[in-house]
UniProtKB/TrEMBL annotation:
Presence of keyword Kinase: no
Lineage: Bacteria, Pseudomonadati, Planctomycetota, Planctomycetia, Gemmatales
InterPro entries associated with the record: RNaseH-like_sf, RNaseH_sf, Tc1-like_DDE_dom, Transpos_IS630-like
Protein name, as recorded: Mobile element protein
GO MF annotations, alphabetized: nucleic acid binding
SUPFAM superfamilies membership: Ribonuclease H-like (SSF53098)
Keyword Mitochondrion: no
């Protein structure tokens, strides 16, 4: 991260978010019975993203089926195509489709270093904060009539990241990570 902040390396945090068409309720309280519209079905909108740790630029690979190793390889190729002479490091979790021979060979061929986080440590993956932000901005307390409107809401939020949401992201995407070493646990 220090090399990235000094302009000597490009670091991307990579993860997928599987948005499912549903009604995401906020606060509902009333004296009378209230019927809340809900979407039917389990359609998924999968966004595999790579977030630049310094510039907050987002590179995505999107589909409505499944995120697989070939999806990760397509994302690697998009990142490599961005050019630049700096070494590239991708910080990934331990999803099976990320930690396989196909992805490792593609990364090696493209000159991209893969850095895998410890298992069960979403607090160390910067892009997890972005997915939480997108869900809050585009989905929480909203009903989307159909899958197309659901997709559009997510796409508009992602498109507005560098403009409309720039200031919010600047405070959200800091390089301060909580680890278990600096957490005070009280004896029960």
């Amino acid at each position: 991260m220090a090399e990235a902040r000094d302009g000597k390396r490009t670091v991307y945090f990579v993860d997928a978010s599987h948005f499912v068409l549903a009604s995401f309720l906020g606060w509902v309280w009333c004296f009378v019975r209230l019927h809340v519209r809900a979407a039917s079905g389990r359609q998924r909108y999968n966004v595999l993203g790579a977030l630049n740790a310094v510039t907050h630029e987002l590179v995505t690979e999107i589909n409505t089926t499944y995120i697989t190793a070939t999806s990760v390889c397509a994302l690697l190729r998009k990142i490599a195509a961005l050019g630049g002479s700096l070494p590239i490091t991708l910080v990934l979790d331990n999803a099976r489709y990320q930690r396989c021979a196909l992805v490792e060979h593609t990364a090696k061929a493209l000159g991209i270093e893969l850095l895998f986080l410890p298992s069960y440590s979403p607090n160390l993956n910067l892009i997890e904060r972005l997915w939480k932000f997108v869900k809050k901005e585009a989905l929480n307390s909203r009903h989307h009539q159909d899958f197309k409107k659901f997709q559009e809401a997510i796409d508009h939020c992602l498109a507005d990241l560098p403009t409309k949401h720039r200031e919010k992201l600047a405070t959200l995407m800091t390089h301060k990570f909580q680890t278990w070493d600096n957490v005070s646990l009280l004896d029960a």
